[in-house]
Amino acid sequence: xGQSITNKIIKDHLxxxxxxxxxxxxxxxxxxxxxxxxxxxxxLILESVNADKVSTETSVFYCDHNTLATSTENADDHLYLKxxxxxxxxxxxxxxxxxxxxxxxxxxxxxxxxxxxADSHTPTSGxxxxxxxxxxxxxxxxxxxxxxxxxxxxxxxNIKLTGSLSPGVSAKDIALEALRRLTVKGGIGCVVExxxxxxxxxxxxxxxxxxxxxxEMGATTGIxxxxxxxxxxxxxxxxxxxxVELLPDPDAEYDDEIEIRLDELEPLVAEPHMPDLVVKxxxxxxxxxxxxxxxxxxxxxxxxIAKAARILKGRTVHRDIDLTVAAGxxxxxxxxxxxxxxADLVASGARILxxxxxxxxxxxxxxxxxxxxxxxxxxxxxxxxxxxSASVYLASPETAAATAxxxxxxxxxxxxxVSLVEGCTEPETYIVDxxxxxxxxxxxxNQKVEIIRGENIVPLxxxxxxxxxxxxxxxxxxxxxxxxxxxxxxxxxxxxxIANIPKFAEYTFCYTxxxxxxxxxxxxxxxxIGGENYxxxxxxxxxxxxxMFLGTEVVxxxxxxxxxKENLINxxxxxxxxxxxxDYDRIEMNDRLQIENTYAQVDQGEVKVKIVNKEIxxxxxxxxxxxxxxxxxxxxxxxxLRNKLAK
Length: 647
Ligand code: MIC
Ligand code: SF4
Prior knowledge:
Layout: H1 5-13, E1 14-17, E2 24-27, E3 31-35, H2 38-48, E4 58-62, H3 72-88, E5 91-93, H4 100-108, E6 114-117, E7 131-134, H5 137-144, E8 149-152, E9 155-162, H6 171-182, E10 190-195, H7 204-212, E11 221-223, H8 228-236, E12 256-261, E13 268-270, E14 278-280, E15 291-294, H9 302-312, E16 322-325, H10 330-338, H11 341-348, E17 351-352, E18 372-375, E19 391-394, H12 397-406, E20 437-438, E21 470-477, H13 484-487, H14 492-495, H15 501-505, H16 516-523, E22 526-529, H17 542-549, E23 552-557, H18 562-570, E24 574-578, E25 592-595, H19 598-604, E26 606-611, E27 616-621, H20 626-633, H21 637-646
Parallel strand pairs: 3-4, 3-6, 4-5, 6-7, 9-10, 9-12, 10-11, 15-16, 15-18, 16-17, 18-19, 21-22, 22-23, 23-24
Antiparallel strand pairs: 1-2, 2-8, 5-20, 13-14, 21-25, 24-27, 25-26, 26-27
Helix pairs in contact: 2-3, 2-5, 6-7, 9-11, 9-12, 17-18
The structure holds alpha-methylisocitric acid (MIC) and iron/sulfur cluster.
Residues 37-38, 65, 119-121, 361, 538-540 line the site of alpha-methylisocitric acid.
């Protein structure tokens, strides 16, 4: 049977296990990334386990999330990350250079490689034909010092793209159509591999939009072949030497497949508060936003912004709209300046932001109370923008620009002659200027490099081993699709405490239930009950670390999102799933749950839970590899890693 690209790369990197869907395997990691949220965590962990120098081919820390620096915390964090990068032999990308998922394919990504990134949108680099998987900072730290990455062998889901996009319809609309059909759960356990004759017409940045949003479908990652389009892109970046061809075999078989006919697509929009609530842009004419944002790791390429600018050229932003634009990287911004596009944007009334995540994660441009914002980003979860009462709609740059002109959500084809945007393609040769990337020096004794810790950098809390008899009360019962943003929200006033756990913990579940922290502290030991797909969305490991800090020992859910389950294990919280999902209904807040002989039950893979006050029992399952079970019993991965490195 012919092989998919996914299976070719996995086979090439397999260090343990047998490749068969669902079977645990371990793969070698070539590259890693982290940033000024998650890279800080990786740095703290590497420090706490006395790591020396990283052993990957390339590891990079990017400063792109916490860049507002309205008080000392962000600057403290950046200084920490920069000095930690030097200490551990990691490239460091300065703030203002751009978003990690933009910069990595531009400057470091290579077809055929495996990359692990401490960010859920790491799959963006899959646009180059690399297997780029998102994870928590702790898992990434492990792989930076030579551990293999453990995962259940994914299924390979083929999204076949046929035909070509009509003018005014963009790669974002393909991603939204895939989400409409597959939902936020449709990709769980799968790598989404894109094939079909439609690929030839999609540039690497367009492919990146699709690879980026694979995570919104719950997929492990998304990947494209490395073909002539990839070669031309790497050549334009001055890196043709990094290109290798990587195509699926002509008779490659996939576990599942859908076809998206590009000619039939129309401009689409995801309605609040989930990226899969997708409708046609033209049906939302009644929605009048206050703000439009064009940017984020999904849609801030040169051609994305050039198309939006073409629509805005000679027009003014509607009086009721506040339009902000952020290029994905400094390279994109340099081209926009060179080609006069920035001037067109400014003339139309757009506000230009720095090259960073910005509004996508509530770092500035927080909407007004009950505000409506149209964004080209990838997530519209409630509260993520920084305003719980706000409504965020996700759209393409073309739809966003048309909306900025008319003041209501608009199909770009109804606003301008969209054939005008056809000429807005990627540059043939990019401006290459890596002066904002600090290359790690060759240092004889890395341990001697001083890591600068400002007041905001507080050592990580640790937890003792898992208890063999757990008795704890239900502190929270939640529904389906709870996001890590629900567990610990984004926003500048919250995320600035990323490296200060006691302060950060005060915000746990703050928008869902403001009494959570107080109750959890009072209970000391607690259990959280979740529905399906618990912990979807961002890789934010604090969604595990903070409940652990507040005493949560177990999460029982109907199912878990992959990255969050990994994080729970890494921080010593037992993630178990209901064997019979009806048992979910038998549990109420404040019930007292008991697990006896936890170690033996975890080893067996089936864990019996007693609801003490109701005198009933139910069965749960733990899906984890043997080594993950050891990590759990040890109380988390840092204990485990420390012991291993000491040897
Ligand atoms: C996000 O989009 O939510 C983030 C901020 O990029 C996160 C990273 C984090 O929360 O630390 C992600 O996607 O993983
Ligand atoms: Fe940054 Fe938003 Fe992308 Fe996360 S999703 S990396 S916050 S731009």
